Amino acid sequence: MTVSPSAGLRRAPDSDEQVGSDASVIERSRNEPDAFTVLFDRYADDIHGYAARRLGVEVADDLMAEVFAVAFQRRHRYDVSRPQARPWLYGIATKLISEHRRAEARRFRALSRAALVEPDGENSDSEPVAERVVARVTAESARVALAGALGELPARYRDVLLVIAWGDLDYAEAAEALGVPVGTVRSRLHRARSRLREALGGSDPTTLQEEQQEPDHG
């Protein structure tokens, strides 16, 4: 199977191939390259969404394709004792995103400066205009404030925070994805959230469930 960052992968031709762990799919793909499309079917949308939220939709298509191109090239090195490949794929995605550090920070800062504009043509008899505007402004204000705060975070803190919040990984999976100890994940997450709370006046829009224990330093 040939994969390139600019080309999409073919969908798995046989639904029976969907049976089996990610590790078994990767192991089979070493001799049957087309089997790797099963992994694409399972995770392409998730990886695309993660990339889009961090870098924008215009970049997400190419980055998602590149993630699977890299994963396909590295499939012979995958540790098949790990049944789930999601952390591995998010790790590749985060590494590729790291090549766009400045662009990501600029994007978040630009979002934080975005003007709040009420779209034309929105009118609902069941919802008074004043209430609708207040609700929209409140939501948009929180969004742009969060974007600004994210843009100011050091990259290592932002990676941990977003791979957990937007990748939906737990601490162990985040550690695997980022190639750092779990203690480092806890420490960086704790510091990231502390900086966000400080920047946002005490609120925590990431809604992450941090364990109540002293974080390790890393």
The string of secondary-structure elements, in order, is: HHHHHHHHH
First-to-last CA distance: 40 Å
Topology, number of strands = 0
Beta percentage is under 5%
Question: Could you report the average pLDDT, rounded to the nearest whole number?
Answer: 77
Shape: globular
The Cα radius of gyration reads 20 Å
pLDDT < 50 stretches: 1-18, 115-139, 208-218
Tally of individual helices: 9
- Residues in helices, as a percent range: 55-70%
Class by helix and strand content? mainly alpha
Outline the biggest β-sheet. Answer: none
Q: Would you mind describing this structure in some detail?
A:
- The structure is a single chain.
- Helix 2 packs across helix 4 and helix 7 (155-165) crosses helix 8.
- The protein starts with 21 loop residues before the first helix and ends in a 19-residue tail after the last helix.
- It is an all-alpha fold.
- Mean pLDDT is 77; it is low at 1-18, 115-139 and 208-218.
- The protein has helices at 22-29, 37-55, 57-73, 86-97, 101-112, 129-152, 155-165, 171-178, 182-199.
- The chain contains nine helices and no strands.
In short:
With 218 residues, this protein is mostly helical.
Core attributes:
0% strand; 218 residues; mainly alpha; 9 helices
